[in-house]
Amino acid sequence: MWAAEFSCVFILFGVTAGGGGWEPLGQPYFDNSTKREATAAVGQPAYLHCRVRNLADRAVSTVSWIRKRDLHILTVGVHTYSSDARFAALHADGSDEWTLRVAPAQPRDSGVYECQVSTEPKISLSFRLTVVG
Questions:
Q1: Which of 3, 39, 58, 89 lies 20 to 30 A from 100 at CA?
Q2: How far, in Å, CA of 123 to CA of 58, rounded?
Q3: From CA 79, how far away is CA 88, in angstroms rounded?
Q4: Residues 6+ apart with CB under 8 A from 98
Q5: What are the C-alpha distances in Å from 100 to residues 1, 21, 39, 46, 129?
Q6: Which of 129, 102, 124, 123 is nearest to 114 (CA)?
Q7: How far apart are CA 62 and CA 78, in angstroms?
Q8: What is the C-alpha to C-alpha distance for residues 73 and 113, in angstroms, rounded to an integer?
Q9: Domains of the chain from N-terminus onward
Q10: Which of 36, 37, 28 has its CA nearest to residue 63?
Q11: Are 102 and 109 spatial neighbours (Cβ–Cβ below 8 Å)?
């Protein structure tokens, strides 16, 4: 009987309430309360905010931003992998927020972007940016 009670206690402490449901303890997950649509005026900065919970304990997992229309990798961690200097990843140490900044925003920047976490399996969340004139 004691083993059954121990298993039950282990299960209760083995999960945590996450973005929209129960998530395995230790696994990164997206905060589903994050706004996934943004609008910016032409010539002004545009910001897409991706919140990844429980990433701090996983040194091998990185957050990347991808432009979906051409699958271009824009950023990995805080490093920019685009020749277009308008794109940058903003992240404060210890924060769970990873922000893609496009400055200044242009109409051609409108579209879908993906925030990816390099877990196994990979997890991703789509964001829509609309740039208005």
A1: 58
A2: 14
A3: 8
A4: 49, 50, 51, 52, 63, 65, 89, 90, 91, 115
A5: 52, 26, 13, 8, 11
A6: 124
A7: 9
A8: 10
A9: 26-132 (2.60.40.10)
A10: 28
A11: yes
What is the token pair recorded at 18? 């996450």
The whole-number mean pLDDT for each consecutive block of 10 residues of the chain, a chain of 133 residues, reads 34 37 69 92 98 75 94 96 96 93 98 95 96 95
Give Cα separations from 64 to 11, 33, 43, 75, 77 (angstroms).
Answer: 32, 19, 24, 5, 6
**DSSP codes, the chain:** -HHHHHHHHHHHHTEEEETTEEEETT--EE-TTS--EEEEETTS-EEEEEEEET-TT-TT--EEEEETTTTEEEEETTEE--S-TTEEEE--TT-SEEEEEESS--GGG-EEEEEEE--SS-EEEEEEEEEE-
